[in-house]
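User: My collaborator sent over this chain with a note saying "see what the structure looks like." That's all I know about it. Can you take a look?
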Amino acid sequence: MTIESDPSYPAHWEADVVLRDGGTARIRPITTEDAGRLVSFYEQVSDESKYYRFFAPYPRLSDRDVHRFTHHDYVDRVGLAATIGGEFIGTVRYDRIDADGRPASGPADEAEVAFLVQDAHQGRGVASALLEHIGAVARERGIRRFAAEVLPANNKMIKVFTDAGYQQKRSFEDGSVHLTLDLEPTAESLAVQRAREQRAEAHSVQRLLAPGSVAVVGVSRSGAGVGAAALRNLRDSGFHGHLYAVNEAVARDLIDGVRAYRSIEAIGAPVDLAVIAVPADRVPDAVAACGEHGVQGLVVLSAGYGESGPAGLARQRELVRQVRSYGMRLIGPNAYGVINTAPEVELNASLTPAPMPTRGRIGLFTQSGAIGIALLSALLRRGEGLSSFVSAGNRADVSGNDILQYWYDDEATDVALLYLETLGNPRKFTRLARRTAAVKPVVVAQGGRHSPAGHVVPDTRLPEATVSALLRQAGVIRVDTVTELVDVGLLLAAQPLPAGPRIAILGNSESLGILTYDACLTQGLRPLPPLDLTTAAAPADFRAALTNALRSEDCDAVVVTAIPWVSEDAPADDLAGALREAVAEYPGKPVAVVHVELGELVEALSAVGGVPHSAPSRSWGPVADPAHRGPAGPLSAAGDSIPSYPAAERAVKAVAEAVRYGQWRRAVADDDGRVPEYEDIDEAGTADRLAGLLADVDPGAVLALTDWDARELLAGYGIRVLPTLPAPSADAAVRAAGVLGYPVALKTTAPHLRHRADLGGVRLDLTNEAELRRSYEELTDALGKPAELQPVVQAMVARGVDTVVRSVIDPAAGAVLSFGLAGVASELLGDTAHRLVPATDRDAAGLIRSIRTAPLLFGWRGSDPVDTPALEELLLRLSRLVDDHPEVIGVSLEPVVVAAEGVSVLSATVRVAHPPARGDLGPRTLPSY
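Assistant: Without extra context I'll predict from the sequence alone. Here is the result:
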C-alpha cells in the first residue's frame, strides 16, 4: 500500500509469504493510515499475549501508543505487519538503540525488537516470517544485532528466536530472558529459512491436491461448458470428499447428481478448493466470495488473462493480488487443472475426461494444457500411471518451484517430470532441483527460448546452452522434447539406476543390434558387442540371454531388441513373460526393450498389461551394497514394468540419461563439495567500500569502477591484480618501467583494442629503454595517437596459459561463474564453462576441466602442466565475492595467466550497482507480479 505522499515509504519491503500451514499472508510496513487496523488487531489479542508483550496487564492501546506504533521513519524505527484480507494478524517493530539501551540513530548498529501475533494465528509461523523480514530490513538499514526482552513463560516467542539459526547470546536479567541475535546470515540460519520455505510451500500445494471439499463455480445448467466438464470429471473420478456445484441461476438442488447452490456462501460448510470457470470479468466476484468463505485454494480455468495481451496481463496481476490478500493460493489462470491419484483422494479437478489416469510413481507438471494432454495420453498409451498432475496455465502464482517443494518429500512420487515454457526464477529452481535430484530424478523439457504471453518472468541474458549446463550442474536431466520426457521418465520410474556406462545388447535382429550399438556410441556409452539370437529365437532363448547379461559383472544395463517372428508360435505375451522372469530373478540392472512392429509387446511389458501399479515407493538414496539396486539407489521392489521403445535411438537416449544421472548421484553422494573459508577475506571492509562507491549512484544505475577501485575491491578478497601505469607518452612509459622494473609489457587499453593481441596492441618482454621506446613508436604509428590508444605499462609475469575468468549477475539466474581460455578461437567456438554461485571446490575443479581446450592446462603435447589448484582458488575467491556482495554485478578478469606456479591477473573490470531489494538469498517471499 504505497503512500504517494510519503516518498520515504519503502515499497520494496512489501512481500507475500507462505505460512507454515500453506496459507499466505502479506507483510508490509505499517503506515500512519493503519491506526484503525492496529486498534482492531489489538482488541482481538488475548490478555495473556498482551501481558507477554508489555510485561504487565495492558487491556488497550492509548492514543499515544497508537501514534507511536504507526509513525515510523523507516530507518531507526520500523514496524511491519502481516495481513490477511487487509487486516493485521501480527506485527513486529524495531527501535535502534545505543550501548545504554536508549533511542539512537546511525551509526549505532543495535535495535530492540518485539512481536505480537493474534492468538488465532499463533502456530502458523507468522512470527518466524516476520523475523526474517524485519531482520532483512534491519541489515539494509545498517543494524547488525537485535536485542529482545522476553518473559520466561513466553516459550513460543523464545523458541522463535532460538530456532532462527542466528548466532545469539542469552542471559537472565531482572526476571526476564535477554536475547541478543547477530543478524549476519549464517549457514544455519539459511538452512532453517529454506527448510521452513520447503515445508510451507509443500503444504500449500498439498492443500490444493488433497482437499476435503471442492466447489465448482460456474457450472451451466445445460451441462455444457468448461465448468460442467470439470464437475463431471470430479464426480466420475470418485473423489472422496464433498463436492458442490455453484451457479447463481440454479433452480434445482442437483446438477449432474451433485448438490448445487446459488453461491459459495450458501453452501454452509467449509470449502477447501474452488474450481472457477466463469468469464474473466466475473472472476473477481467469485474470488471475493471464496475468500470471504475461507476457501484455501483456487484452480482458475478461465481464460482472458496474460495470454490475451496487456489488458489481460493487468487483469492477471490484479487476480494474484486479490487471491493472496485472502491468504489463498492459485493455480492458473488459464489452467488445465490438477489430478491426484492417491486412493484416499482420487481428485480429478481438471479437463481430463474419465477414466482418470491410473495410480503410478510419476509426478507431472506442465504449463501448457495442450502439452499436458499430450503427455497424459503418451503415458496412458504406454501403460504408466501418475501420482499427481498439475497443469498451471499462466502459473501466475503456483509454479514448478512449488510443485518441486511438494514432490521433494512426497512418498508417492519417485520421478518428477516437468514441461516448462519458462524457468521463471532459474536460481531458485536449480537450488530446489538440486536438492530434489539428490533423492529422486528430476526430468525437464523446456519449450521455447522466449517468454510466451502470460508468463511474467525476468528475461535471461544467458545463452540456452548455459542454462542447460547450469541445470545439469544441479542434477536435472535436461531433454529436448516431450517424447524424450516420457521416454526417460518411463525408464526411471520402472527400472533401477545403472551402475555405469557398459551396455549389453541382445535380440533377434543383427541389424537392429548394430543400430543400438551405434546409438550407444553416439551417447557416449560403452556398448558390448551385440548378441544376435537370430530370428529363430524363442522366448526361452531371450530369457536365458537376458539372465546371463543381468548376472554378468561386465555390464551395467541391458537393451533387448525384438522384431516379429515369422511363425506365430511365440506371441508377445510369452516374450514379455520371459523377460519379466529374468528381470525378477536378477533385479539389479535396468532393462529397456526396442521393438519393431510389436505393438502388443508394449502393453504386455507395461504395468497395465502385467503387474498392477501397487509397488511401494522407491528409495533413491545412496546405499552401501550395490547389489540391492545399483550403487546410486535401491528399489524396494522389482520394477513394475519394462519400458519399451519403437526406436533404438530413443531407448538408448533414455538409458544414457539414466547413466549420467547415476554418475551425478554417486559424485554428489561421495563429495558434494564445500565453499571454502579464507582467513584473509575482508568481508566487512569490502561491504564498507561498496557502500562508499555507491553512495552517489542512483538506484538502477550501474557504476563501472576505475582500475584503481577495481584492484582495491578485489584485493579485499585476496585477488591481486597486477598494477599498470599509464603511458601517455614515450617518456612516461620509460618512467613507468623504471618504477615497475624491466622486463615490461606495453599494451593499449582502448575499448576496441583491449584484450586483442591479434591486432598488435600488445608488446611483450621489453627488457630496456631502447626496446620500450621503439615499441611505443611502432604502436602509435600503426594504431593511432596515444590519446586514442590509452597505452599502459605493466611488469612481465611468468609465461603460462592465458585464461578468462568472469562472473555476471543474470536477471533471472542470479550469479554465474564462467571460465575459458583467452583468445578469439575460444570465443568463436563458445568454449566457455559455467557454474552457479556459490561454487564449491568440486564445482571449481569441474569448471576448469569441462572446457574442450582443458588439455592445454594439463601438459598437452609435452608442455608443462600449469598450477590448476591456484586457478581453482581464484575461481572460489571470486565466487565468494559476488555471493557475499550482491552489489557486484559483473567481474571480468582477462587475461589470467596460469603459470607452472601461481596465477597472475593482468586486468580486471568490475561493475557494481545497488542490489535488488529481495532475492533468492533474502527472506522467504513469493514472486511479485
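A starting point for your reply to your collaborator: Confidence is low (pLDDT under 50) at residues 1-5, 608-639.
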